[in-house]
């Protein structure tokens, strides 16, 4: 066996497939782009869905990649098994309608067994296949594989909903009898028994059918273009090449584990209880990469996943005796391990460390709160004579506060109670099922559209014109290619060239008209999108007959185009301002440049402060007023990077790119249209800043006419306020408002003082009516107050004198009943007494020995409650 590092394995994979004519696609962000069906990029093929469903035709139908991915459906298994991870690397090779089964299997066997490449011993490889897929069986046989090494498995068929699907053949490596102590052998594979002997290293999916949930699998129609989709786990390959017992003893994880040893003073024992080391090593990789890609810890979605990973890792640190923030210190180690292929982790090291350290410190405070919550639960259980903490309470401590069930169990045992383990596990299972359902939902690809895929004629977009004459070269009506179109139809058209911009990079499509040489409008263009082969595809309302191969005048709505251009250029200015004022981590996470507004989403870990928003808005306007030239050049990607061009989120760039430069302020890669000078934008105004998800903020802004109208609207509102305040000048309004606020504060103080006097006067009379029961003096009365604070005021006055031992007050406030019990004697526990009285008014409550409160809903029972106080003393 060869001894290969993880970096060598990855590079050898990519080099092999490049030698077979594959284009090497770079690993993309873990945060999905324009794909709301996925929480994370969870496989190598997830980034290529647009190719597999035919939405876009790739330049090269042969693709290979090494893609970082995250799956978090079974976080609890991380650390328990040898191969379970939240973040992993999937090595893949893909064919989009090019080669199929024979080549895929032949080349896979060559890569695995050739001395030039991986050089696995052939006798160590086993393959599973779908029983009805005899073609794959025969191909493996043709490659010289022993029939005894081919195992039919009924589950070897890949499909998730409608769309591309097909049989798959999996490749396993036999690690030998040392990992099969019971000598079960091939039954481990045939019966899908969990084991450490036969390690799945590669899955080849033969995507040849369009899955349709409405029909049996035997009736699936074949795809017009058959595809190959494969995945091989780098971590598993590394474990085999490096002779590791588990994935965690490879060069991908061991350096992290060694650092944890330093911080904990504990030693990692591959054969001992090392779960905490594994959890930390796995989770810090996910955290470092995900935060580096723009995801931030939070309370929902991706943010919740990261927060949960961090808290779980932190708790395992505590199990190892690390009682201070330490995870952030592991980020440089993660970066160094992955530097050869993922330099961005070290490049963003300071920011990633800052976020993780802040979250660790926050969790320490949360953990403290959780301990109080756990103690409160125990106290309430004792008061109610309960001996078992409910599974839901245990789960809440785990889910909300990050408490491992073992810690909750310790707290419970110290208090002499137990926990409902079964109920907790049931709640855990429900959460895991919700996570799995969420992960699978929408994961399939769309149906291939043969009609649009078949359009291969050339079409060129002309940037610098808004009207030209062009030939109609393709027309589609009702998903069918046609030679001519009649009026009254909706259709999709392709021209040899066009001035119409197809929606891309957040810029909406152009609208306009199609005319004949006399000026008659023949069709209205209502949208333009890219066809699978990249041509601008015009969606039109046909007003008069159109025919293929005839020439027409294409005219863009220039007013609309110019308004969109203003907003698009302003977006570039906004992006640059965010970088300068908030930091370089504030990168684009989506945008929309519309006719009347612009919307910009960006990564940031907190709400943008008012002074920051003002500074951003001011800086953008300053650049507008400086009348900076907006210049666009076409160049190659390497030159663009040397120019300092910033790539826009979600865009895929070819060899030739467009670089948009705004003075010396902004340089970005961008395929959109822009104004020639920032002065054309006129004015820029932020109208809203909000959070749209964990770690992601959104700015809505307007320019030009819309910005003027927004300012005018605010001015009119301010004038109305000035008139009400009788302020002659607008600049006097703030002082007038502050003066009114001060007057209001003084009146509120006077009102509170009067209320206290009134309460004291009322209390003076009420406190004279003490009663006695079982040797305890008590006062029980209904009072009139506006809120619960009024009851406390009565109680404070009562405490000042020797009126009685116990005070019971009841007040009907709105539709609710409020009850207060105060006690000066050890003979009466206020909290216990209120628990007996509250049910009378359909309420519940509790409190301390000297003071307790309750709320109820049955005001008709107030007199009954007051009459029975003596019976409970």
Automatic annotation (TrEMBL):
**Which Pfam families does the entry mention?**
DHHA1, tRNA-synt_2c, tRNA_SAD
| Enzyme Commission designation | 6.1.1.7
Which GO biological-process labels does this protein carry? alanyl-tRNA aminoacylation
Which SMART domains does the record associate with it?
Answer: tRNA_SAD (SM00863)
> For binding Zn(2+), which residues are annotated in this chain's numbering?
568, 572, 670, 674
Q: Which reaction does it catalyse?
A: tRNA(Ala) + L-alanine + ATP = L-alanyl-tRNA(Ala) + AMP + diphosphate
The alphabetical list of record keywords is: Aminoacyl-tRNA synthetase, ATP-binding, Coiled coil, Cytoplasm, Ligase, Metal-binding, Nucleotide-binding, Protein biosynthesis, RNA-binding, tRNA-binding, Zinc
Which cofactors does this protein require? Zn(2+)
Enzyme class, first EC level, given as a word:
ligase
Among InterPro entries, the record links this protein to: aa-tRNA-synth_II/BPL/LPL, Ala-tRNA-lgiase_IIc, Ala-tRNA-ligase_IIc_anticod-bd, Ala-tRNA-synth_IIc_core, Ala-tRNA-synth_IIc_N, Ala-tRNA_ligase, Ala_tRNA_ligase_euk/bac, DHHA1_dom
Q: Where would you find this protein in the cell?
A: Cytoplasm
Where is each Alanyl-transfer RNA synthetases family profile domain found? 4-713
Recorded hits in Gene3D superfamilies, A to Z, give:
2.40.30.130, 3.10.310.40, 3.30.54.20, 6.10.250.550, Bira Bifunctional Protein, Domain 2 (3.30.930.10), Threonyl-trna Synthetase, Chain A, domain 2 (3.30.980.10)
What's noted on cofactor binding?
A: Binds 1 zinc ion per subunit.
Q: Which residues form a coiled coil?
A: 730-764
Domain of life the protein comes from:
Bacteria
Q: Name one GO cellular component term.
A: cytosol
Q: Which GO terms describe its molecular function?
A: alanine-tRNA ligase activity; aminoacyl-tRNA deacylase activity; ATP binding; catalytic activity, acting on a protein; transferase activity; tRNA binding; zinc ion binding
Domain comment, as recorded:
Consists of three domains; the N-terminal catalytic domain, the editing domain and the C-terminal C-Ala domain. The editing domain removes incorrectly charged amino acids, while the C-Ala domain, along with tRNA(Ala), serves as a bridge to cooperatively bring together the editing and aminoacylation centers thus stimulating deacylation of misacylated tRNAs.
Known role? Catalyzes the attachment of alanine to tRNA(Ala) in a two-step reaction: alanine is first activated by ATP to form Ala-AMP and then transferred to the acceptor end of tRNA(Ala). Also edits incorrectly charged Ser-tRNA(Ala) and Gly-tRNA(Ala) via its editing domain.
Family assignment?
Belongs to the class-II aminoacyl-tRNA synthetase family.
| Cross-referenced NCBIfam families | alaS (TIGR00344)
Supply the name of the protein.
Answer: Alanine--tRNA ligase
Q: Which organism is it from?
A: Streptococcus himalayensis
């Amino acid at each position: 066996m060869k001894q290969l590092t993880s970096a060598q394995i990855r590079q050898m994979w990519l080099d092999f497939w490049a030698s077979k004519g594959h284009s090497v696609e770079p690993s993309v962000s873990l945060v999905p782009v324009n794909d709301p069906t996925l929480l994370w990029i969870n496989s190598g093929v997830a980034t290529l869905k647009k190719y597999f469903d035919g939405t876009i035709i790739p330049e090269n139908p042969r693709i290979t990649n090494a893609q970082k991915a995250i799956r978090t459906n079974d976080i609890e298994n991380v650390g328990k098994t040898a191969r379970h991870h939240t973040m992993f690397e999937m090595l893949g090779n893909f064919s989009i309608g090019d080669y199929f089964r024979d080549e895929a299997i032949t080349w896979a066997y060559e890569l695995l067994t050739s001395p030039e490449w991986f050089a696995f011993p052939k006798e160590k490889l086993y393959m599973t296949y779908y029983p009805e897929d005899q073609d794959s069986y025969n191909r493996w046989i043709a490659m010289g594989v022993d029939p005894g090494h081919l195992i039919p498995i009924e589950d070897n068929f890949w499909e998730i909903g409608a769309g591309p699907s097909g049989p798959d053949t999996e490749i396993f490596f036999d690690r030998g009898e040392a990992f099969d102590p019971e000598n079960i052998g091939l039954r481990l594979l045939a019966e899908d028994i969990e084991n450490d002997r036969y390690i799945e290293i590669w899955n080849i999916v033969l995507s040849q059918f369009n899955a349709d949930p409405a029909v049996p699998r035997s009736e699936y129609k074949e795809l017009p273009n058959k595809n190959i989709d494969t995945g091989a786990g780098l971590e598993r390959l590394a474990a085999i090449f490096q002779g590791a017992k588990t994935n965690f003893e490879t060069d991908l994880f061991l350096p992290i584990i060694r650092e944890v040893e330093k911080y904990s003073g504990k030693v990692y024992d591959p054969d001992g209880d090392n779960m905490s080391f594994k959890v930390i090593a796995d989770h810090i990789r996910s955290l470092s990469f995900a935060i580096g890609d723009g995801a931030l810890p939070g309370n929902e979605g991706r943010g919740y996943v990261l927060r949960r990973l961090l808290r779980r890792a932190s708790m395992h640190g505590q199990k190892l005796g690390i009682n201070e923030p330490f995870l952030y210190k592991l980020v440089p180690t993660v970066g160094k391990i992955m530097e050869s292929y993922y330099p961005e982790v070290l490049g963003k090291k300071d920011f990633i460390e800052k976020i993780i350290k802040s979250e660790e410190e926050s969790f320490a405070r949360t953990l403290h709160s959780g301990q109080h919550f756990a103690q409160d639960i125990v106290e309430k259980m004792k008061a109610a004579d309960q001996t078992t903490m409910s599974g839901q309470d245990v789960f809440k401590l785990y889910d909300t506060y990050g408490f491992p069930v073992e810690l909750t169990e310790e707290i419970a045992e110290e208090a002499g109670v137990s926990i409902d383990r079964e109920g907790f596990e049931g709640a855990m299972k429900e959460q895991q099922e919700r996570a799995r359902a969420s992960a699978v939902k929408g994961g399939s690809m769309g149906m291939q559209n043969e009609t649009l895929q078949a359009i291969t004629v050339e079409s060129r977009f002309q940037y610098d014109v808004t009207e030209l004459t062009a030939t109609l070269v393709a027309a589609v009506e009702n998903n069918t290619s046609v030679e001519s179109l009649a009026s009254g139809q909706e259709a999709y058209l392709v021209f040899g060239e066009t001035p119409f911009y197809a929606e891309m990079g957040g810029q909406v499509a152009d609208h306009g008209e199609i005319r004949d040489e006399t000026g008659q409008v023949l069709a209205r263009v209502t949208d333009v999108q890219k066809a699978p082969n990249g041509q601008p595809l015009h969606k039109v309302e046909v007003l008069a007959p159109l025919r293929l191969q005839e020439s027409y005048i294409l005219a863009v709505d220039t007013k609309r185009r110019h308004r969109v251009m203003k907003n698009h250029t302003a977006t570039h200015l906004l992006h640059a301002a965010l970088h300068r004022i908030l930091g370089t981590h504030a990168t684009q996470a989506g945008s929309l440049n519309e006719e009347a507004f612009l919307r910009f989403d960006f990564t940031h870990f907190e709400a943008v402060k008012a002074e920051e928003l003002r500074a951003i808005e001011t800086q953008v306007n300053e650049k507008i007023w400086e009348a900076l030239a907006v210049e666009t050049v076409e160049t190659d990607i390497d030159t663009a990077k040397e120019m300092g061009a910033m790539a826009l989120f979600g865009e895929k760039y070819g060899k030739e790119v467009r670089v948009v430069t705004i003075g010396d302020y902004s340089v970005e890669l961008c395929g959109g249209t822009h104004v020639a000078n920032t002065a054309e934008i006129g004015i820029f105004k932020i109208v809203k800043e909000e959070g749209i998800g964990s770690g992601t903020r959104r700015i809505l802004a307007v320019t030009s006419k819309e910005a003027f109208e927004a300012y005018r609207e605010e001015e009119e509102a301010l004038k109305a306020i000035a008139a009400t305040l009788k302020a002659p000048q607008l600049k006097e309004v703030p002082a007038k408002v502050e003066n009114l606020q001060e007057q209001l504060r003084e009146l509120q103080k006077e009102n509170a003082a009067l209320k206290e006097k009134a309460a004291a006067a009322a209390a003076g009379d009420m406190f004279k009516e003490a009663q006695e029961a079982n040797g305890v003096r008590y006062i029980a009365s209904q009072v009139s107050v506006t809120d619960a604070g009024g009851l406390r005021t009565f109680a404070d006055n009562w405490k000042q004198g020797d009126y009685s031992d116990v005070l019971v007050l009841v007040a009907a406030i709105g539709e609710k009943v409020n009850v207060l019990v105060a006690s000066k004697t050890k003979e009466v526990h206020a909290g216990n007494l209120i628990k007996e009285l509250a049910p009378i008014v359909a309420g519940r409550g509790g409190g301390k020995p000297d003071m307790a409160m309750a709320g109820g809903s049955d005001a008709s029972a107030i007199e009954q409650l007051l009459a029975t106080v003596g019976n409970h003393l």
